[in-house]
Design goal:
This protein has four domains: 183 residues, no CATH class; 148 residues, no CATH class; 149 residues, no CATH class; 195 residues, no CATH class. It contains 24 helices and 23 strands. α1 crosses α2, α9 packs parallel to α20 and α15 packs antiparallel against α18.
Length: 778
Amino acid sequence: MIKNYFTIALRNLWRTRGYSALNVFGLAVGIAAASLIFLWIADEMGYDNHFLDKEHIYITKSKQGGDAHSGLLGPAMKADIPGIKHVARANWRGSYLFTVGDNGIYQNGHIADPEFMDIFSLEFVEGSKATAMDSPNDLVISQSAAKRLFGDVPALGKSVRVNGKEDYMVSGVVKDLPTNSTIQFDWLVPFETFEKENAWVRDWRNAVVMTYVRLEPTAAIADVNRMLNDLVSRKTGNADAGNFLYPMERWRLYNSFDEEGNEQEGRMKYVRLFSLIAWVVLVIACINFMNLATARSEKRAKEVSMRKVVGASKVSLIGRFLGESIILAAIAGLLAIGLIFLTIGAFNSLVEKELVVDLLKPSHRYFLISIVLACGILSGIYPAFYLSAFNPITTLKGAKQNVGATGFIRRGLVILQYTASITLIICTVVIFQQIQHVKGRDLGFERSQVVTVPLRGEMTKRYDAIKQQLMATGNVESIGLSSGSVLHIGVRTGMDWAGKDPNEQVTLYYQWADDGFIPTMGMELADGRNFRPGMLGDSSSIIINEAFAKHISPDGKAAGKTVYWDGDPYLVAGVVKDFIYNDVYAPAAPVFFRPFNLSGGLLNIKTSVGADLPKTVSQIEEIMKVNNPGYPFEYGFLDEQFNEIFKSEMLIQKLAGVFAMLSIIISCLGLFGLAAFTAERRTKEMGIRKVLGASVASLVGLLNREFVVLVLISCTVAFSVAWWVMSDWLGNYQYRTDLHWWVFGLAGVGALLIALVTVSSQAVRAALANPVESLRDE
């Protein structure tokens, strides 16, 4: 019986192969698009699953969601809080120069406590975890780093020169972590030496390191958090510290906090959004099948009636039509697999991942089978019940079935298709506008034509010579030093000043900078002065921004006033106008600059107006090679680093745009098929109207009218949905664009034009047909 079903199904599909091809292709595109999105979602949801017992791994956070804490916190937690199995401090991932012989390459890694390896259950392929970080100059590297440095020979026991200064011995090689891991590194070195050389790490008020924790399985997180807050309050005197342990399970998808410390959705909102888009695309493809199946129902009415007359039950007919639908979905599924393999490379480039499709993997295989079955059943359930309900007596007498209800449903499904497509188009445009709106924001500093060069080796010692040579090129306007990028200022602390409310806790961010930094960044002084050249007499001076100044003095005039940091007095030399850092969507937050006295950081180079940028970069490279031999030249552009901030929003925009176009294409395929069936069903009517004198234009308008009305209704619904969705999305940003009516209008006009072009091809064909052919038998 199944063989009979299969044979007849294929015969029916071949008989209407043109429309079946439309269905198969539309469904295949829908399945392929949804499958790619679900691959991306699976990768996002699978982050950190490779870590053993990841539900017991945490990072300490503050009320504002910051990861930075004092270097004293970790040891104090281990000593004072029961239920903690391992604690490890680590600095933010840094890039160090590793040299083996003449081979020098930059590698990213952490300075971390040995228990870092226990917390993250690192798997050693060379050496032993028990002894890998016993000595100050021990070095643990990843497999890929070992291959880059030593090739295929064992790395254990080999010597590596780090940053051209000290020799470290490879004490262990660990297996590379998967790409969907929030923890990524090429190397680890002991925290002990770093702590001894930097006394500021051992200050409770300096938030400078991350603290990772692995709890005992029996530990109660609520009790641990309570004891953590008590500990920090005792040590810092801050009763409103708001510290807590944040679980690894939420690092990837929820690691976002508002100003009050409330957790936001983070990347999870993107996962939900694209889950919705995937299902929308699938449903649009399934709607095509339902519409085309019910539209051609009159062609199969006599077949259904004859089967009923010879004894076929309603259940068997439903099974037959569902079988046809599933066979069609299976064919579409096979085509979709081909489309997935063809497009996975482009999709990976778009989302910047390394997703793979492995049909030998049960989860991938079962997923595709489930999608095919779901599409087959979803697409075929209504047509199956509709076709099986035909009255054989009415049909065999030559009378037509009542298509009022199915026509209404068919039109409703077209409206649903176009509503989804138009909504996606509007959302894509609004997302683009929001990104451009923020990119155009006045940040309070100049980001164009600024080249950033990491300070390596002898660059700080030879800074005066480097500066003189750079200025001599004629292509450099100014130069300034800073401890890091002006876009990301991560070090936090607290201060006191005369008249400060003892209950007021002001979180301050700070950065080291020299006298050239403020003019190079194009910042403006609102009060006071800049640092003096060479920092003469300025070792105890700071420059603050207006947001900080208003805490010290209501009128913002804070220059000349004294603030106290750990009891030591600091003179406010100047006040710069507010600038935006860290969060480009938020207002300016309090920040201050200290005089630059570091060996590392950034060299910020402002190129001259009209300078040939590639030529200038080449000149900078030559100067760095002369003054800092042995160090590969690194550089970046501040404006490109600024654009990186919008990576997630750009991903949303690109994906939404791609799938909006796909949904329009799939909808047009269905509309094309429906228009063809409508034109075929009304062939005799067109012939009669033409004989009576109707023009081709009037006939085309007549056939187009129904579809135009459907698209206009879709626009009305889509405008409301898109306005609500985008208003809610923009509500996540303090600095945001407005919703403009013309965006909705353009999307509606565009959808209408596409629909008209799609339908008109069939309408014109029907209007130009010879009426003699259609009326021959009348």
